[in-house]
Amino acid sequence: MTVVIGILAFIFILGAAVVLHEFGHFIVAKLFKIRVETFSAGFGPRLFGIKWGHTDYRISAIPLGGYVKLGGDESNAPIEGEGASDIPDNERFDLRPRWQRILVAIAGPVMNVLTALAIPFAGALIYGIPATPAPVVSSIASGGAAEVAGLQRGDRIVTFNGIDNPKWDTIRGDALLSPGQPLPVVVERNGQRQQLTVTPTAHVEDGETAGFLDFIPDYGDLPVVVREVEPNTPAAEAGLQAGDRVLAVSGQPVHSAEQVTQFIRDHKGEPITLTVNRDGRQVNITATARRLSDGRERLGFKPDEEIPLHKAGVAAAGIYAVASNLEIMRLTGKALGQFFTGQRSARNTLSGPVGIYKVASTSVERFGWGGLFTTLAFLSLNLGVFNLLPIPVLDGGAIFLLLIEAVLAMVGLTLSMRLRERIQQVGFVFVILLMVFVITNDLLKQASIWRGTGNQPAATTPGK
């Protein structure tokens, strides 16, 4: 059943991101009365669809993208196929003013970006904005990165990795991208500022490495709930369920998820009793940690603080949507920068269809509809930005060529059709190679996990 849900989530997320992108091209072309010959979800041979007016709305065989075939535009013929030859001049894309062609090309990425903004905006209006704690150290894991660095409870982080007055999300995001890398930190302690260096603990999960600071900020006294219970683990066998609120661990009142994690780590091989609230009833669950398939001794569940949500108006929701997307772009740009400078491996940076499936499946399993739409927003934003890159075949490449044509036209020159075709062919080969690369990368990552090498933890990785 989990696999079926994962597949449906993958189809919905990838399909929605692609269809929304192509709808951007489609609607602007229609507004300019440009003929749209094909609206396809997927590439390759036509599987099924419906012909309505001059447009063939279809599902194609290769579900790794989509396209809108515009009348008179043969620039992407290797992908989209040859178009009709009897299209009236007033409906041809290639005969339209350059500014109209640019608007049609940019409309797809713009639609993706608007989708990425609309989802957190709507979520903030409906549910509220998650509380952001001050970057004040509340609880520190014994032997973890924060303790080794000399951080103490009550420290306020005033500079992190060169960023002044950072928000907690910024601190956590930079740490996730910097496993095992020393990061400069300035803390305020008893009115004095101290310079420290923290090295995020490297933690490998599902073949990807992330860095953790091994401390949590001061959220206040928040409920601690069980986010996920892994099957075939001591926690699952003892009857622990996702959604349970953890009240105590072996008699100790619980104040943070890190407290639960640390207690389990410090009492390996011993029976641990979790007192939880389930649907208004108090339940005691006893289990003993054991070594699981990833090589760590754990109970097999994920505790987490239940972050409060603050009611938001239109302005606050808009600011939140923009800020969250800018942070995603910042972290994505940083990850790509690390990849190109050799600080980060391709396996730990790029994902293809298999990676998208795993993220979609995990998100919907853990967070339901919220996880589904959050993943759609993330993918949509990345799809929109990627398509703006000046690579032939992509929208950014089409816009770049149109701008070059505009510059050449100022001095009475033009790009020959033969040269345009060669440029598109190079772009087509590049995109195919990129697709092969990310799919191969996905398969190698998955093979590593199956062999049991993808989840070898760092020595200081906390278990739970």
Protein architecture, described:
The structure is a single chain. With 464 residues, the protein is α+β, with helices and mostly antiparallel strands. Among the domains are: 137-217, Pdz3 Domain (Roll), CATH 2.30.42; 224-306, PDZ domain (Pdz3 Domain, Roll), CATH 2.30.42. The protein has helices spanning 2-31, 77-80, 98-126, 145-149, 168-176, 234-238, 257-266, 314-340, 353-387, 395-409, 417-450; strands at residues 36-52, 55-70, 129-130, 137-140, 156-160, 163-164, 183-189, 192-198, 201-205, 208-212, 215-217, 224-229, 245-249, 252-253, 271-278, 281-288, 290-291, 297-298, 301-305, 309-310. Strands 12, 13, 14, 15, 16 and 19 form a 6-stranded antiparallel beta sheet that branches. It has a 4-stranded antiparallel beta sheet with strand order 6-5-7-8. The chain has a two-stranded antiparallel ribbon with strand order 1-2. Helix 3 (98-126) crosses helix 8, helix 3 (98-126) crosses helix 9 and helix 3 (98-126) packs antiparallel against helix 10 (395-409). It is elongated and about 80 Å long. Residues 453-464 have low confidence and may be disordered.
